[in-house]
Amino acid sequence: MPFCMLAVISCLIAWVPIVIAHGYVTGIVIGGTYYSGYLIPTFPYEKNPPEVIAWSTTATSLGFVDGTGYASPDIICHQNAKPGAKTADIDAGGTVELQWTTWPESHHGPVVDYLANCNGDCSTVDKSKLEFFKIGESGLIDDSNPPGKWGSDDLIAKNNSWSVKIPTTIKSGNYVLRHEIIALHSAENKDGAQSYPQCINLKVTGSGTDSPPGTLGTALYKDTDAGLQINIYQKLSGYTIPGPPLCPGGSGGSGGSNDSNTNTSSSGQPGSTTTTSALATTPVQATTSTYKQPTAPPQPPATPTSSAITLPSGLASNLLDGSYSF
Ligand SMILES: *[C@@H]1O[C@H](CO)[C@@H](O)[C@H](O)[C@H]1NC(C)=O
Ligand SMILES: *[C@@H]1O[C@H](CO)[C@@H](O)[C@H](O)[C@H]1NC(C)=O
Ligand SMILES: *[C@@H]1O[C@H](CO)[C@@H](O)[C@H](O)[C@H]1NC(C)=O
Ligand SMILES: [Cu+2]
């Protein structure tokens, strides 16, 4: 390997501690109740980590699942994910707000949400049997200035949070919500798209009867999908959001829900415009969330991540992100 290449690589390695801020869901707000996420900085290191509604994962580097993992169980709910022990109640038609750590602006891409019926207790479900149907999606919102404005940018603008509406028509039952950001900053390379799936357990109550057909997690994506192998640094004539089509009653467009929750100019909390808004703005500590929020992981300045993607070769940016790969 020529010396100049070695120099580039060591420089990239030096950047890693600064760039290492992909992200995970720290908390979830449903009907004014706050639930702790699976707190990556602490829970994996505890002998008896708190029981939460979020699925556990060993993705302690805040990494991703790339295109080589689309057929692996890791794509379902992240690396070595195991079901959360708890479940949050929600009415059909209700909104789930997922709060992320600061998402890196350079990691543009769609935000998608799926449900899968556990047909029983989600805390003991076999994830390889879960069949997911899509209930929300937001892809390319504005491409007038590539790489454009994406669902991920909308998420950042909403205080790094995302609201997804549970379809009113869905039948009652226990479901896994699979919420995912797909970062496309390296997706011009085969297998370069990065999935950041996050799962939580929900018990949905309503009078609906819908039971939409689903897709196994390991069959959601192919690395040749138009929305997964794509160069976002050029003007696009359109964008096909990955995964199966939105189910009837699902929510397209930005914000993941078809209601006033998408307006964040007043509170920055998309989930707060319901009748429970008084509670939502002052999150109630549920029994599952009596743990202190960890101090946020160090956030990178905007420039290092963008300088990473302006490196001349796709190889270089791959190496950078490959450092967190499992
Ligand atoms: C979204 O909400 C508006 C206003 O309530 C309604 O007219 C429209 O049909 C809804 N669209 C979808 C896709 O549900
Ligand atoms: C959002 O809310 C602000 C202030 O509450 C209001 O002025 C604005 O018109 C709203 N925008 C939309 C799109 O509803
Ligand atoms: C932004 O989100 C954090 C949780 O991630 C929350 O604690 C904070 O109150 C939110 N800020 C606003 C202005 O809503
Ligand atoms: Cu990254």
UniProtKB/TrEMBL annotation:
Subcellular localization: Secreted
Record's signal peptide: 1-21
Pfam family, one: AA9
Chief location category: secreted
Residue ranges of every copy of the Auxiliary Activity family 9 catalytic domain listed in the record: 22-236
One Gene Ontology term, aspect cellular component: extracellular region
Superkingdom to which the source organism belongs: Eukaryota
Any coiled-coil regions, as ranges: none
Regions of compositional bias (Polar residues) in chain numbering: 283-292
UniProt keyword list: Disulfide bond, Secreted, Signal
Name listed for the protein in its UniProt record: Auxiliary Activity family 9 catalytic domain-containing protein
Cofactor: Cu(2+)
PANTHER family the record matches: ENDO-BETA-1,4-GLUCANASE D, PUTATIVE (AFU_ORTHOLOGUE AFUA_1G12560)-RELATED
Region (Disordered): 244-312
Low complexity bias locations: 257-282
